[in-house]
Design a protein that fits this description.
Helices cover 53% and strands 0% of the residues. The protein is built from 8 helices and no strands. It starts with a helix and ends in a 40-residue tail after the last helix.
Length: 166
């Protein structure tokens, strides 16, 4: 349980989760539903955060917790049978609603009870938290958002091969 007693590791895990949450709307925009968009994302942000890939499931689980919380199921335990139904309900939403839900989760994630860490570079690119960007407006077809700092990744199939840890 090193993550619970190591503030530096906890901070890196939280930043990796924030980056994943900030990057998911871009993947959903490409036509992938929430649960599919998650595949490969946690490994990608672990790589960017210089975390061992073994932390990827924890980052993904924290992202799922944050999104289901924003969906109206606060602090849903990860290992209850109802969680899969909640994720299925999220996947059944239109993609633009899924994007807004994930973005709401990303914005809330930074505003937790104690936020001592800066948001990721990706967060500053797509989110107005902490005055880093102008307020978000409803998407319009003629306006293309700047996503230059969002980490691009392609969803992977479940259980991708992992490289050895750092």
């Amino acid at each position: 349980m090193a993550w619970a007693t190591d503030p530096e590791l906890t901070g890196r895990l939280r930043r990796a989760t924030q980056t994943l949450l900030d990057s998911l709307p871009t993947v959903i925009d490409a036509g992938e539903p929430f649960s599919t968009a998650l595949h490969g994302g946690a490994e990608h942000v672990c790589d960017a955060a210089e975390l061992d890939y073994s932390w990827a499931p924890m980052v993904e689980a924290e992202a799922v917790r944050a999104v289901t919380n924003a969906f109206g199921n606060p602090d849903q335990a990860l290992f209850v049978s109802g969680l899969s139904r909640i994720v299925q309900h999220i996947d059944a939403l239109p993609l633009d609603e899924q994007q807004r839900l994930v973005q709401r989760a990303a914005d809330r994630y930074t505003g937790g009870p104690v936020w001592l860490l800066p948001r990721s570079t990706a967060a500053r690119a797509v989110s107005p938290a902490l005055g880093a960007a102008p307020p978000r407006r409803e998407s319009r077809p003629d306006v293309v958002p700047d996503r230059s700092n969002v980490l691009p990744f392609n969803p992977r199939t479940p259980n991708p091969p992992r490289t050895p840890g750092r």
